[in-house]
Design brief:
Layout: E1 22-27, H1 34-46, E2 51-56, H2 59-65, H3 73-83, E3 91-94, H4 97-101, H5 107-117, E4 122-126, H6 128-136, H7 140-144, E5 147-151, H8 160-164, E6 169-171
Parallel strand pairs: 1-2, 1-4, 2-3, 4-5, 5-6
Length: 176
């Protein structure tokens, strides 16, 4: 620690760091369009996040979460890299941890990895179907106090745990 006195001009106020936290877009990105990605990016900028992370899940994880077939991980990651805009407004990253594992990764392990490596607070952007699935897991109660959910659209039905924790999730605003 520096013990030397420092001089600052009269009236100096340190700059306020407005950008904080991370928005993590957790999805297969199989059905996701560029417009939806742009809306997610706009939401990250509007909420002043320091970082926007795209987290494509591996096809083994997708098979266990839903019965819908998905294309190979590397193809979906390539499409995300092609979309990834060169904008200076916010740091955008594609987390390839699940692609390196090349196997089923429970959402608990993924969230543990993400919360340990990315700056807090953590917001998880998910589809309503994924949110309902996540709420059905036993570990949901443990995770909902550590992260906040941001849903891409209004769910047709809510899991009782989502209803109980309504104050911990929000809908993504759409700019028209």
């Amino acid at each position: 620690m520096n013990t030397q006195p420092q001089k600052v001009p009269f009236g100096y106020e340190p700059p306020i760091d407005r950008e904080k936290g991370t928005l993590i877009y957790y999805d297969t990105f199989e059905q996701t369009t560029e417009e939806e990605l742009d809306l997610a990016l706009e939401a990250a900028v509007a909420r002043s996040f320091a970082k926007f992370v795209l987290y494509p899940i591996h096809e083994e994880t997708a098979k266990r979460m839903s019965k819908e077939p998905v294309s190979p991980y590397y193809k979906r990651e390539k499409l995300l890299r092609e979309w990834e805009p060169e904008r200076g407004r916010i740091a955008i990253a594609i987390d390839g941890w699940e692609g390196k594992r090349k196997k089923y990764t429970p959402i608990d392990s993924a969230l543990r990895h993400l919360t340990e490596t990315l700056p807090a607070p953590h917001f998880l952007l998910v589809t309503p179907q994924t949110a309902n699935q996540f709420a059905s897991f036993a570990s949901f109660e443990e995770w909902i106090v550590k992260i906040r959910l941001l849903m891409s659209s209004e769910p047709s039905r809510l899991h009782p745990r989502l209803e109980q924790n309504r104050h911990r999730w929000d809908l993504m605003e759409r700019s028209d």
